[in-house]
UniProtKB/TrEMBL annotation:
InterPro entries: FBPase_C_dom (IPR044015), FBPase_class-1 (IPR000146), FBPase_N (IPR033391), FBPtase (IPR028343). Keywords: Carbohydrate metabolism, Cytoplasm, Hydrolase, Magnesium, Metal-binding. Residues 12-199 form the Fructose-1-6-bisphosphatase class I N-terminal domain. One of its GO terms (molecular function) is magnesium ion binding. Binds 2 magnesium ions per subunit. Its EC number is 3.1.3.11. Mg(2+) 1 binds at residues 98, 117, 119. GO terms for cellular component: cytosol. One of its GO terms (biological process) is fructose 1,6-bisphosphate metabolic process. This is Fructose-1,6-bisphosphatase class 1.
Amino acid sequence: ESSRIAQSIGIALDRFIKNNQDEFAYASGELSQLLRDIALASKVVNREINKAGLIDIMGGAGSQNNTGDDQQKLDVLANIRFTRALAKGGEVCALISEEEESFTDLNNNGKYVIAIDPLDGSSNIDVNVSIGTIFSVYRRKSPIGTPITEADILQKGSEQVAAGYILYGSSTMLVYTTGHGVNCFTHEPSLGEYFLSKERLIMPEDGRIYSINEGSANSFSEGVKKYVQYCKDQKYTARYIGSLVADFHRNMLKGGIYIYPSTAKDSNGKLRLMYECNALAFIAEQSGGKATDGKNRILDIEPTSLHQRVPFYVGSKEMVEKAESLL
Ligand code: AHG
Ligand code: MN
Ligand code: MN
Ligand code: MN
């Protein structure tokens, strides 16, 4: 078994980063350390997810986060794991998390700021459906050793130096970009390592899958209603997993569009710019796709608050442009 795996898999994550060090504007050792810290935490979270039901990590934690989400035990646990791993790695000076009201000060000599959704798709944890982690990496703006400033924390998406997601699915995958295309790594549990499984992933220019929660259809704008009707007239396939990372990853492979529009409940939609939309917008663009708020490029949006929401239209370029033409 392991010899068959050894023949078929690509190179390990660390080796890949070293082989491609020209693709990161800064010392590749720093990127290696950052991705190693994230990968380590993801392996711990992955192991806990695989034991859900056997150990007590299901259900609510009995608390709410800053965006009003009921925190699941695994939300809190994943947040702790990623925070600890990044604190130990020493490269990160400040951490923005869905599960923390303000940013967390880590190593003041660190050169990087990370925004993270530690556990995406919380509503799916207890029903054994794929969930994910989403992260963005920025370079700090203030001098090393000085206090963290707002300029370090509220950077627009085009300032990202790296972004990625982990998908805890039928296999656990780490997908990331440093601005030179998108590479996918699959976790090999028996070896405890991530190995390259897809290099330079390109999202199909067009597609026939649309992801939107039609439970909110009554409060969709006329334009969104028109686009959903267009998808039905074209006999597209509707797929909505309820985990953004899983819907996004499927669209990366097969082509498709994911929409979380303004609804009666949230006039700016539900998804958060800093730790969900910016990272996936960077990855979408790096694979030839598109990501807007229905009008403006996501990566150009100047953030004004840590947990701000934006309407999110992301996926195959032709599909996003068709949707925008009807809005
Ligand atoms: P999170 O679990 O990190 O709060 O994110 C959940 C998001 C996203 O993953 C998913 O696509 C969306 O919420 C589902 O929202 P609805 O249940 O409102 O459709
Ligand atoms: Mn949440
Ligand atoms: Mn999320
Ligand atoms: Mn989350």
